[in-house]
Amino acid sequence: MEEFEEMYFFENSYRNLIRRRHRRRHRRVWVNEIFMYRKQLGEYHHLFEELKLQPMKFFEYFRMCFSTFQYILNAVEPLITKQNTNYRECISPTERLAITLRYLATGHSFRSLAFSFRVSNSAVGIIVRETCKAIFDSLVSHHMPMPTDEMIHQNVELYWSKWGFPNCIGSLDGKHIRMKCPSNSGSMYYNYKKFFSIVLQAVASPDYKFLFIEVGAYGQQSDGGTFASSAMYRQFENGYLNISKCLPNTNTLLPLVLLADEAYPLKRYIMRPYPRRNLGEQETIYNERLSNARVVIECAFGIITQKWRILTKCIETTTENAETIVKCICLLHNIVIAKEGQPRHNHSTDQRRNLGQRSNYASRGQNRSTTEAYNIREAFKHFFSNENMVQ
């Protein structure tokens, strides 16, 4: 009986061994069949060449003209070029830039773009992250450099001639960027508008470009709180751009300033409006002049939101990648203006409405200001009042 069982065991083992040897292996597919036809059916391959022949359509698709696209491509190509392998051909730098710009321009999900461009979902995410970082790293020194004295004085002259506010470096404000809730973050990113966000804080020049940007503050912070915890704040507090200049046609020497709304503190280098209760004529004139000049930053935010529609959607990435995307968009904004000129933007209605909504929220904070800051604001007030009397 034992011999029979032993023979049965060996025979059964032998049969299993033979079956395994002859069994056909099921290999994993290296490329999904959908993606195998990327060059025949992918959106980039059947559309890009046609778009190049129609400048208006190219601009609608990429939010920039072909020459600007090519300028960016030349800068980032060394950073995003990949090597081909024995098994597959890599995605070209041009297609990588096209996928990234299309993501920023439309706000479509990675999954949606994966089907359109016939590239895997994970590949789209990697492409967007790497290309946005490459754009910022390669071009930030050209299109968002640290302002020189010459650039500062040009801004001051342009602010005065175009917006009617002297000694102004730029206008300061913050914008909430919607994003998915980061893991283990609690309510840190949950803002007063009742969604999760990081904050883009920026200073805009009179031609709508961004002079300084800082991205990544918690959404629950107010604009003033965000500024107080920023590197930008520390720079100005330590005397960065501590330059004074006489007001036009006077001997009144005042420092160069940023313009901000009620959410920010009144400081030597920040001018904010007078409180809106019981305003006199001179205070009203000052507030109007400040508001007219400060709207530049609102316009800049409006332009990037209209052009790069990802800013109207929830960014479904990690916080770090969301920060990279937002910084890239701000730089693209500067590049497009530098290469193609200032866009047309109507701020007369929606921007003023936003200002009113923001001031209600901002008034909840208490901002302590120095006597020097009050005196500087008073000097601006008297300048505008005297100018009105002369006119």
Automatic annotation (TrEMBL):
It comes from the Eukaryota. Keywords: Hydrolase, Metal-binding, Nuclease, Nucleus. Its main location: nucleus. Pfam families: DDE_Tnp_4. Residues 172-334 form the DDE Tnp4 domain. Residues 342-369 are annotated as: Disordered. One of its GO terms (molecular function) is metal ion binding. It is found in: Nucleus. InterPro entries: HARBI1-like, HARBI1_dom. Residues 342-353 have a biased composition (Basic and acidic residues). GO terms for cellular component: nucleus. Residues 354-369 have a biased composition (Polar residues). Its cofactor is a divalent metal cation. Belongs to the HARBI1 family. This is (apollo) hypothetical protein. It comes from Parnassius apollo (Apollo butterfly).
